[in-house]
Design brief:
The complex is a heterodimer. Chain A has nine helices and 18 strands. Chain A is α/β, with parallel strands linked by helices. In chain A, strands 1, 2, 3, 4, 5, 6, 17 and 18 form an eight-stranded mixed beta sheet that branches. Chain A has a four-stranded parallel beta sheet with strand order 11-10-9-12, sandwiched between helices. The longest helix of chain A has 18 residues. By secondary structure, chain B is an alpha/beta fold. In chain B, strand 3, helix 11 and strand 4 form a beta-alpha-beta unit. The longest helix of chain B has 28 residues. The C terminus of chain B is likely disordered. The chains are: A alpha/beta, B alpha/beta.
């Protein structure tokens, strides 16, 4: 088994020009209250012609007036800069899979080259979108873009619902015994103590993002501490049986995380489920692995999530710039019809 | 061996069956007997009330584990003749209909499909129970009244598949495996549709959908008619996560919405006697929603179901003879120590909690333990007090700082007119035992605050008191205390030949950590957890600040607040929010017999005791709580971020509640 495979990823302005020059990209993105959601779209406006942009409303926003104000501000910037190049789609956090599919379909019908910008999409949306784009043979070139943010809100999301399968990623068979549970280590441990009663993993793999960067580190360890309290790991230096294992991974390297899961599960031969509570690229890798396992006819990989009902108005306060350049990353998922993330 | 016997918390369904039999305390079983008696039962209780553990006794795996370990199954012998099935509706995708757009078009149809999906999930689990029990020891088969063993299982296929209830969908099944696969196949079709693997739901399903509760009923009676199950065997169906149904938000679509709960309520309303449902729910949320699908009727207690309220059962009582929580806590404590390897003879007879944590410290002892170098500096004198009064209090402070502080408060309240040159015990505030009792806890906390020290929280009785009738909180307190102790004790923490004696300071550190943990945990719960967290923080800080600045300590009971019931009813959003706080165990909601002349019915609200160390307020409830107005509580709720529903649903008149009328 090859443990590591090269899959192109890096700055979007480096990655995208490596595709054939005649590729006509369409961008599927979410414009919200975050500054980075707008900056990300504008960054891609230099390379893509068409934009399919969604506005996704929370069921009960934390501050409805401020949310409306900030959202309008974002859209006015988009309107100024992308005149006549975008279609707007109004959705809800709880939009149905059918509505999400219609939105994605609109883009696919115009071109076979899609850039999916997950910067401000909630998991509830981008998981099934990635699934649809990977599985649709009309899509020949597929790149996921993620623009990093800075100054995260103290509480990025609130009021979680019960832990349930994320849409499009259930256990169809109802399997309840698993070899592994992969947990993306994140900021908030949202209501998933019940998980380990329903689905019994034989081992727990904590995907620890490194380096998390402040203030992530403290929150990440807090997350781990709470998790240990839930699953009962005793760090007394005496117990040899340790059901929790940490895998330190880059917080940005989707390919590395995908390979780590691939390796641990022996190409999906061993059963697993995912709890994507970590950074978006780590969640994306989990999503890609679940899709790849399904495509290869391996044991299904359900994904569970406690859907928050509210997200912070300024989830991140601003977009991250490195050396004066927007940190807008691209991950190639399909190249000339070839799938890059497979088991 | 684990050095912290409390590392794993008391989340009922987290344990393996083997761990369950060792750790489970059967203390509550006699108080919750309706669970094991035919008829529908609704079990309400906050997380940590032991609800999951009690319902866990219905699982066949748990019963078999008791048998394998040679331990007595904790259910009374004459109540053991039952089989069971269980469904976790959220986890098993039963409520995922909202993922598809069709739900907006025809909610009534979706309720019918949900009922059918749930029916098949119940039957699937029942078949698993039959398989597991039939292949288990003969004595358990006899006990439950199952007349077939593993070899005879295939006979179930034809018996069940020939039932008319399936409308022909199952076809003829010749084996057990075949019927099991057919049932699983239908469930799979549902999940494929709900998660859009299939665009449309298979038409054969729509044409053959079943009414809620009918398939499991017919299967069970079918097996009885075939002589495979005894006539007097009961079937208990545990619907797990019913309580979360109210928290699942839907899309903002006009018109009727799918009401999952009403479908389950319909199963309870059937009262056909063949199948008994077990529903775990939160108290107020349950009472608010009794609608029965397809009717305007509502469920009624005693007629449609029996009610086991674990919160009421475990609520701390002033009469120790009827307060069952301390006994429950002691039993759980002892089992944990046994499980972690402490020798049995150490656990017989005496109170192990007191052996480990020591007796309750009096307020005087807790103040003394602060070791304040110059006690007299804690005292505050008003201008104009006589020198001899000041001198007497300063002298007293060096011997008994708490008494001196109470003296300061007494004189501030009553005036500097007393002769303090009296023998010990004759000081006016010492002679007034009730006055002293009502103020000593608050005064002790004031002293700790004024000396910039953390107060002591320790002793067996205090650990039980801080648990507030919640066994999960009790275990968590122990977990944090032992964690802290293990760090100090090192290798000594491995010793199992004697019980440790954990010092007061270690206990206090552990208690504070546990308190902080529970505050933080509030935000991870379902429902309006962020607003609840904010509300508790905001109100506790307001009350604490008022308590600490009250130099006369005129209102030592202002660690909670009281509201007139009628006012609460007039503002339903306030009532619901407060009920939600109570349902999640964030606040205690108690009847309040007022001392006001108006004699109006009131409810009083106190923070869960585990939050009190964090806010440094006494958890012991004393005297009258703060008499709040609905407008004040509304403004607290509003300031906690719960703006939308309050402002948008209340009438113009009610909106005027949001005044500047602050505490």
């Amino acid at each position: 088994m090859i443990n590591f495979r090269y899959r192109a990823w890096g700055n979007a302005d480096w990655l995208l020009p490596h595709f054939n020059s005649d590729v006509d990209w369409a961008v599927v993105a979410c414009v919200g209250t975050e500054d980075r959601s707008v900056k990300s779209v504008l960054e891609l406006s230099t390379i893509a012609k068409q934009f399919f942009l969604a506005q996704i409303d929370d069921p009960v926003p934390q501050d409805p007036d401020a949310t409306e104000r900030e959202t309008n501000k974002s859209w006015s910037i988009v309107e100024e800069n992308l005149v006549g190049r975008f279609q707007k789609f109004n959705g809800e956090l709880k939009s149905s899979l059918d509505e999400v599919a219609v939105f994605v379909d609109a883009a696919i019908e115009t071109t076979s080259n899609i850039i999916l910008d997950i910067t401000s999409f909630p998991k509830r949306w981008f998981f099934p979108m990635v699934q649809q784009l990977i599985n649709d043979d009309r899509v020949k070139n597929l790149v996921v873009v993620y623009t990093q943010g800075a100054k995260y809100a103290k509480v990025i999301s609130r009021n979680p619902e019960a832990l349930r399968p994320i849409q499009g990623f259930p256990s169809f068979s109802g399997r309840s015994e698993h070899d592994f549970a992969f947990v993306g280590v994140g900021f908030h441990l949202l209501n998933f103590s019940r998980m380990f009663g329903e689905d019994k993993p034989r081992a727990l793999k904590m995907l620890f993002p490194f380096p998390p960067g402040p203030p992530g580190l403290k929150k990440n360890w807090k997350f781990v501490e709470s998790m240990e309290r839930i699953v009962g790991r005793e760090n007394d230096g005496v117990s040899k049986i340790d059901p929790i294992d940490f895998i330190q991974l880059s917080a940005l390297d989707v390919s590395q995380t995908f390979d780590a899961i691939r390796k641990v599960t022996k190409e999906g031969e061993r059963t697993s489920y995912m709890l994507p509570f970590g950074p978006k690229p780590v969640s994306l890798a989990m999503c890609l692995f679940a899709i790849a396992a399904d495509r290869a006819g391996k044991a299904e990989v359900p994904v569970y999530y406690a859907q928050p009902s509210q997200y912070a108005l300024h989830y991140t306060e601003e977009a991250l710039f490195k050396n004066g350049k927007l940190s807008c990353l691209g991950y190639a998922l399909k190249h000339e019809g070839r799938q890059l993330y497979e088991v | 061996m684990k050095s912290n016997p409390f590392f794993e918390l008391y989340v009922g369904d987290r344990f393996t069956s083997r761990e369950f039999v060792t750790i489970f305390s059967d203390y509550l079983v006699p108080h919750a007997l309706p669970i094991f008696i035919p008829g529908n039962v609704v079990v309400t209780g906050i997380q940590g009330s032991g609800k999951s553990m009690l319902l866990g006794l219905l699982q066949p795996k748990v019963r078999r584990e008791y048998d394998a370990e040679g331990l007595k199954f904790p259910v009374p012998e004459d109540r053991r003749k039952f089989l069971s099935a269980g469904v976790n509706i959220a986890h098993q995708s039963a409520i995922d209909f909202g993922l598809r757009k069709h739900i907006d078009d025809d909610p009534d149809e979706i309720e019918l499909l949900f009922a059918d999906f749930l029916n098949y999930l119940m039957v699937e689990n029942f078949l698993e129970t039959l398989h597991f029990t039939a292949n288990g020891p003969p004595n358990i088969r006899d006990e439950v009244g199952l007349q077939i063993s593993g070899d005879d299982l295939n006979g179930i296929g034809p018996v069940l598949s020939s039932l008319p209830i399936w409308e022909g969908w199952l076809g003829a099944c010749t084996s057990f495996d075949e019927i099991q696969q057919k049932v699983k196949g239908r469930i799979r079709l549902y999940r494929r549709y709900l998660h859009r693997k299939d665009r449309e739901l298979d038409f054969s399903i729509k044409d053959t959908r079943t009414h809620i509760g009918h398939p499991i009923r017919d299967c069970f009676t079918g097996l009885k008619s075939a002589g495979m199950v005894d006539e007097n065997t009961s079937l208990f169906v545990d619907i797990d996560q019913y309580e979360e149904l109210g928290n699942i938000s839907t899309r903002d679509t006009p018109g009727k919405k799918v009401d999952y709960r009403s479908v389950i309520n319909r199963a309870l309303a059937a009262r056909d006697g063949a199948v008994s449902y077990r529903i775990g729910a939160r108290g107020h949320a349950w009472r608010r929603h009794g609608r029965i699908q397809g009717t305007n009727a509502k469920l009624e207690e005693e007629r449609d179901y029996k009610y086991v309220d674990l919160d009421v059962l475990l609520k701390r009582k002033e009469d120790q003879n009827i307060d069952i929580f301390p006994g429950f806590a002691r039993d759980v404590f002892s089992r944990r120590l046994k499980f972690s390897g402490f020798r049995e003879e150490l656990l017989d007879g005496k109170d192990q909690i007191e052996s480990v944590y020591g007796p309750q410290l009096s307020a005087t002892e807790r103040v003394r333990k602060l070791n304040i170098r110059e006690p007299k500096r804690i005292l505050r004198f008003d201008p104009g007090w006589r020198d001899k009064t000041k001198k007497a209090l300063e002298d007293l402070a060096s011997r008994d700082l708490l008494s001196a502080k109470l003296g300061e408060i007494w004189i501030r309240q009553k005036g500097d007119v007393f002769d303090l040159d009296v023998p010990k015990g004759k000081l006016p505030w010492e002679a007034k035992s009730y006055w002293r009792k009502e103020r000593r806890e608050a005064a002790a906390l004031q002293i700790a605050s004024q000396s910039h020290q953390r107060p002591y929280w320790c002793g067996a009785e205090e650990i039980i008191g801080l648990s507030g009738g919640n066994i999960l909180v009790f275990l968590s307190l122990n977990q944090f205390i032992w964690d802290t102790w293990v760090q100090y004790a090192g290798e000594k923490s491995e010793v199992r030949t004697s019980l440790p004696e954990i010092t007061e300071i270690v206990q206090s550190i552990g208690v504070l950590k546990a308190s902080n943990f529970w505050i933080e945990k509030m935000g991870q719960e379902t429902g309006r957890s962020a607003e609840r967290l904010q509300f508790v923080n905001l109100v506790a800080e307001k009350l604490a600040s008022k308590l600490f600045s009250d130099d006369k300590l005129s209102n030592p009971g202002h660690t909670g607040f009281s509201l007139v019931e009628q006012e609460m009813k007039e503002y339903p959003e306030i009532l619901r929010f407060l009920e939600e706080l109570a349902d999640y165990g964030n606040m205690l909601m108690l009847d309040h017999t007022t001392k006001n002349k108006d004699r109006k019915h009131r409810k009083k609200f106190y923070f869960h005791p585990i939050f009190c160390p964090h806010f440094r307020i006494p958890y012991v409830r004393t005297k009258e709580p703060y008499y709040a107005k609905a407008s004040e509580v509304a403004s607290w709720i509003y300031d906690s971020g719960y703006k939308i529903s309050l402002t948008s649903k209340l009438s113009e008149e009610q909106k005027s509640l949001f005044s500047n009328d602050q505490l």
